[in-house]
Amino acid sequence: MKLQRKNRLRATAFGALAVSGALVLTACGSDDNTKKDATGATSSQTSAAASNVKCDDAKGQLLASGSSAQKNAMDLWVKNYMAACTGVEVNYKSSSSGEGIVAFNQGTVGFAGSDSALKPEEVADSKKICKDGQGINLPMVGGPIAIGYHLEGVDNLVLDAPTIAKIFNSKIKKWNDPAIAKLNPGAKLPDKAIQAFHRSEDSGTTQNLGKYLGATAKADWPYEPEKKWPAPGGLAASGSAGVASAVKQTDGTIGYFELSYATSQSISTVKVDTGAGAPVEATPENASKAIAAAQIKGTGKDLALGLDYATKAEGAYPIVLVTYEIVCDKGNKPETLDTVKSFLTYTSGDEGQKILSENGYAPIPAEINAKVRETVASLS
């Protein structure tokens, strides 16, 4: 729990962020009396970050939408970027990966955020918008998918892949189930019904959780990894913010969402028994150990990654996602191209990536990120 407390203090230092819907995250108390802006960052932090932004020929308004998992990072990026580039407005609508890709392929946004790489049919659709080119995946945000829970009296919960699969597949229905008890000797598990929350809309976070469960608990999770929630039963909520809010508010609940939603709301997270020497906690550092082993599986300028969800490496947290920014390799809209390149140059740069580790995310490994920067510079 010391590490969770450390993560909460990190969230405090940089402020809790507004999230989708009616939910507003309230920043924790701090001894720092430096003046803070609406997102919680101090004026000195904003100035320091803004000083590293190169605006180049950025101008006007840039619309983007998609993944809610990267919203907290995007909020900070947008704030710092707009502080440096006066007269430029970047508007990122946090919805879902599926909605972001649809908006991109309809030509209504300059780029989309997605927790899963484009499918072949989505690439084909993108060619209608990307004149003489196609949509490509640029890995920009990494991090753990936390399994968050709310269970009074239990603040150190260990689960393994089969148990997680059975909980979300409605096969394990009580918190004192023998399978959970075996993984948590000595814990006072109540005879209480489990309320398992999943995403109501198509979600790349859902798909990445499905990839993990399919790779590690196939017998208990027989579904193909899709953005749409596949299992029977359970309860649904909209966006990572909605799932986190539901877990925060109700005893006996469990759900999945990007780690910053857990740290900013002080939601307890599951340690995962991967078969390594010790259960692994959801932290940016532990997620980085898993993401560092990723291989580029895309071709040409496409930088889609292949992740090893079944890793048993010591200290590697296996339930990870990489969020991509979807852009055209060629044929980006002329009126927003310069702003897209300028903004993504900042997010993939040293300062933009540094923000990630300070706010519950994992930076993209340096070797892969170098290719992202090269690709952003070549967009046309």
Automatic annotation (TrEMBL):
* All residue ranges annotated as the PBP domain in the record: 58-350
The positions making up the signal sequence are 1-27
User: Which keywords fit this entry according to its UniProt record?
Assistant: Phosphate transport, Signal, Transport
The coiled-coil segments of this chain are: none
Is Transport there in the keyword field?
A: yes
Q: Which InterPro entries match?
A: ABC_phos-bd_PstS, PBP_domain, Phosphate-bind_PstS
| SUPFAM superfamilies, A to Z | Periplasmic binding protein-like II (SSF53850)
- Matches recorded under Pfam families: PBP_like_2
Q: Which domain of life is it from?
A: Bacteria
Q: Which CDD domains match?
A: PBP2_PstS (cd13565)
What family does this chain come from, according to its entry? Belongs to the PstS family.
**What name appears for this protein in its UniProt entry?**
Phosphate-binding protein
Q: Organism source for this protein?
A: Streptomyces sannanensis
